[in-house]
Automatic annotation (TrEMBL), chain B:
Residues 4-90 form the Acylphosphatase-like domain. GO terms for molecular function: acylphosphatase activity; carboxyl- or carbamoyltransferase activity; double-stranded RNA binding; ligase activity; zinc ion binding. Keywords: Hydrolase, Ligase, Metal-binding, Zinc, Zinc-finger. PANTHER family: CARBAMOYLTRANSFERASE (PTHR42959), CARBAMOYLTRANSFERASE HYPF (PTHR42959:SF1). GO terms for biological process: protein maturation. This is Carbamoyltransferase. InterPro entries: Acylphosphatase-like_dom (IPR001792), Acylphosphatase-like_dom_sf (IPR036046), Acylphosphatase_CS (IPR017968), Carbamoyltrans_HypF-like (IPR051060), Carbamoyltransferase_HypF (IPR004421), DHBP_synth_RibB-like_a/b_dom (IPR017945), HypF_C (IPR041440), HypF_C_2 (IPR055128).
Amino acid sequence: LGHGSGGQLMAELLADLTPRLGTPALDDAAIVVTGRPEIVLSTDSFVVTPRFFAGGDIGSLAVHGTVNDVAMMGARPVALSLAYIVEEGLPLEELRLVTASVARAARACGVPVVTGDTKVVGRGAADGLYLTTTGVGVRLPGACVSASQAQPGDLVLLSGPIGLHGVSILSTREGLGFDSEIASDTRPLHRLVATMIAAGAQDVHVLRDPTRGGLASALNEIATASSVGIELEESSLPVPAQVAAACEVLGLDPLHVANEGCLVAFVAQEAAGRVLRAMRRLPEGARAKLIGRACDAHHGRVVMRTLVGSRRIVDMLVGEQLPRIC
Amino acid sequence: MDATWRIEVRGIVQGVGFRPFVHRLAHRAGIRGTVRNAGGHVVIDATGTRPRLEEFVSGLRRGRPEAAKVDEVRVSTVPADDPAGFFIVDSCTAGGTLPQIPPDLATCAGCLRELFDPADRRYRYPFVNCTACGPRATIIEALPYDRERTTMRDFSMCRACAAEYHDPADRRFHAEPIACPRCGPRLSFLGTTGDAALPAAVSVIAEGGVVAVKGLGGFQLVCDATSEDAVTRLRSLKARELKPLAVMVRDLTTACVIAELSDDDLRVLSSPSAPILLAPRHRGILATGVGHGLPDVGVFLPTTPLHHLLLDDLRRPLVVTSANVGGSPMPIEAVVLETDGVLGHDRRILGRYDDSVVRSLGRRATTIRSGRGLAPLPLELPIPTSRPLLAVGAQLKSTFTLADGERAVVGPHIGDLEDAETLEAFQDAVDRAQAVHGVRPELIAHDLHPGYLSTQLAHASGKPRIAVQHHHAHVAAVAAEHGLPGPFLGVAYDGLGLGDDGTFWGGELLLADYVGYRRLARFSHAPMPGGAAAVRRPGRMALGYLVGGETAVRKPSPQRLAADSPSLRRMIEQRVNCPVASSAGRLFDAASALLGLCEVNSFEGEAALRLENAATGHNAEPLAWRLERRDGLWVYDGVATLHDLLAARDDGEPVGRIAAAFHATVAAVTVLMCEHAATETGVSTVCLSGGVFQNRLLAVDVLDRLEAAGFDAYIGERVPVNDAGISFGQAAVAAARSSCA
Ligand SMILES: [Fe+3]
Ligand SMILES: [Mg+2]
Ligand SMILES: [Zn+2]
Ligand SMILES: [Zn+2]
């Protein structure tokens, strides 16, 4: 398997696996139909290396990741479960630190960890420590978001700067030296979502946290799932200067770098101003902005108007970033 | 006793005055019957005595019009008819296999005389043409090629033009785009139309303005090539900072003033396809901004009467370049740039054809970009395809090839597919070609690279696909162009293409036929720190070789590389975003960077071009090199050569000499690899391909050395060796596989 970086290979793997489970879903969480309010369920495993990085650690990431996946369904997360897989030999102190971080993050989110499990496996059977979190939420009143709900004419809103998490992790892991200036953006987004739904309800069509594969992959998935085209403006993309500089050295496209603390939303044009103002009232949305729009052309494709005025196709990441130049 | 023969003539026989020529020939030989266009070929029913018929058929081959090309003459006997004379009859629209679209032709000598003859009724008429020249591919809606299926149907012929069109003795007999000032297209410029438009545009250009001109295959930007300000302004409009600009000159005499041209070059320049020729530039009259210190200048002659008039009025070389921004396609409907006016006209352009570019390799020339005048390029496949197929090419310099049976046609250069408008133009051009040729592909050939947008189009088509390895396609294109039977040795040197082992290739020697290949030798591996960023910054590549190369033995001392940094070294050590490549193009980049010749590749191949420029005129012995046996392959160790290059630089050798020595090294290694391969396989035919062979020094040296060593050596001539040739190679391979399956 060479599917670790998200993007197209992962999409193909999932397309292969999900039918075997009998599930058609593409979203990061699912609605469990039990009546009203609708229950939302999401699960995710966390295998990040290094486990401690600027801005967070595997514990806070496991909480935020699942809280956010539940929130992206337009839901209010209500409880989490937590499972550890621990490699024999992991210092107990490290496990305590991670657990404390989980607790702190959960408390800050206002979402309790209500059940859990711990397994210890032999040396070499796992790489240190893996976490799996499952989140349960209830749909916010009026919410009807899904990756397939984008409409031509929708405006694309982004809650904050991109590229921080991926660059910070890579830099710390490989000792590249950018981590002193760049911290992961990992943070919960469920309050931001609640504010947006309150401001827009039916007008918020899609919510997505652009994690692995970055903004480019998230937008491509939405474009495909909703059969719309997406037009981005390069000039309005919030790429922090340190991220841009690090990406230049690393040869990475910030659009392909993972995020853990921002969301992208497709909002009906007439409601977009209202939703944007609501977002900016919260710290996690203070720098929210309009980055593009959905259109009724080039369905399934994301196109960016570049700074020099040409229109570049923004593709899903294929495996590693394979250069296409001859 | 009279017989009736049916004679079918294939090749470039439409839109070049072939039917009128047949008519004249029939009259001379005393033949009765008919001639008509059918699909893309010409069908003649000829009645006469056997000796006269034979004389007639041989005359078809010998006396053909200048721009025609006869590939095949098929004769069969049909029941005798008794026609009263010889007639040109209406075309029949029944399809054959892959009819050919005639390319556009530059103004012929006859029309040029009329253009500047005050007594002629077409004096200074910018749309004069005849059966031997004028627009073709750019205005055709469908085949067969007749006025009613071109955009000239918007104009109804005046009585004088109609008389010429219907008179078999006239040189405009069946000249489909026939026009005159009374009935044909008219110019317009800033609100003026007709006679006033041209002088107005001329004075804007004379004063240093930049004017958009509607050419044959799309809009161009035109300005005074001797004015620094005008050239700078044009560059900023196009957002093109450094890539050289083409210069149009009035005649061959002026061409010789700005460039070093051989007799062969002069023939290429004045051919009916009138391509841009890349040739060594003379110092002097051109603004420095035209070429920015690069060795070659792209020079060409006027391609239409309108360009002749502009050059004649302005009496100075003009920059003539496509009116697009950055990587987007040449516009054919309107110009969005803020020029000082658009010199347009009311004849619609249907096919987008950029000006063609050709580079002289001494005895031969290689096509860099196939566009107006050269495309669509009809070729024969060595192994016919069992089903109609479409080959979608690579990612950069995109072209497509349509094939049916043994016939293939390579479409014009379209550009880099990452640009959204180029991708749309690519899809439009494919759709248009399928409609015009009447072919519905049942099979799609594409590259192995999953990220190429062409590959994604192939997947999206839902049709059966055949994936062809990039370098196999490169060398198969050359072999197929020259009709070689195979097997052959293929030397593919380029920047990058995905190999079948998941690494990037680009310095490869393959034993190949049209179905498959076996890798026999390669350049050594090196990491590309930052992937595409290492392509943009040649210094990174140098660091990649010296710090992380497959054969790097010692750590380089801090070199004079601007690209060097602890982060980069760390990336190489940890293999962070460091795809591995065995690429000749990347080795040229590294050498260029280590000699201080290129910091940033501002356009594709710049570092190598600057290295070639430095080497030109120097003679030198090869640098150190090593060819080792590794995992069943011959591996050329590029690091050893780079170390020796650095040592030579430290010894104070002149950069030009070292650059020449580097070229000599790669040439010598190439020949030795071929000799090993020939010993191993008994095959002594070599095909050279890949963008690196656009390098004149290297190509000529390798060809000469191979021939001296007894090889039959070939290089792409009509089919580009760069990625524009990939689609044809894919078609040749997919066709062979389709018919052996
Ligand atoms: Fe190539
Ligand atoms: Mg998830
Ligand atoms: Zn003519
Ligand atoms: Zn007329």
